[in-house]
Amino acid sequence: MNRLRKKRWFALVLVVVLLLLFYNSTWLGKMMYPIHYRDGIEASAKKHGIDPLLVAAIIRVESNYKAEPRSKKGAVGIMQIMPDTAEWLFEREGFRSFSLADLDDPYKNIEVGTKYLDLLSRQFKDKLPQVIAAYNAGPGNVTKWLQNGTWDGELSHSAQIPFWETRGYVDRVWYYYKKYMNIYADDDNAI
């Protein structure tokens, strides 16, 4: 009996030691939180001056890297871009050769979504909680909330955001953004 108890304690200690070793392991983190389409994310992020880890976090929340999904509201592709937003970007931002059908291509979808993040970043002066909220709720809603004092634009006050979906969205994107920064910060590549 004593021998069996020692084996159990040894096994428990071994499991705890292994868990501690892998707890901060980037290898394990990368396995649990992979970033797909890295080359497309890195290229588009560099082109538009957006942190690739933010793009990855938005993709993770929007589609979990699945290229096919269409939302109930009609958003398309890996970054869940609304067709009206895409058409506006096609006209305004030099994507004239793009069509709505192109949004099904993950790399083109990433390009369009990252350009939209660039525009939102400029509009909201690189204040990421506001940019993230605007990506979900639209820049008009976020501007209205900021102007009328509904939300002060700070992450720490995201509970003030009047749309429950957007509150949760901002929190989830921020969670994955921080997670990716911890896991991928020491990579030789951007991500």
Structure description:
- With 191 residues, this protein is mostly helical.
- It is 63% helix and 0% strand.
- It has 9 helices and no strands.
- Helix 7 packs across helix 8 (139-148) and helix 7 packs across helix 9.
- The termini are far apart.
- The mean pLDDT is 91.
Annotation keywords:
9 helices; 191 residues
Low-confidence stretches: none
Q: Report the major sheet.
A: none
E-strand count: 0
Figure out the total of helices: 9
Draw up the topology in text:
Blueprint: H1 2-23, H2 26-32, H3 38-48, H4 52-62, H5 83-92, H6 106-123, H7 128-137, H8 139-148, H9 164-184
Helix pairs in contact: 3-6, 4-9, 5-6, 6-7, 7-8, 7-9
Q: How is this structure best summarized?
A:
This protein has 191 residues and is an all-alpha fold.
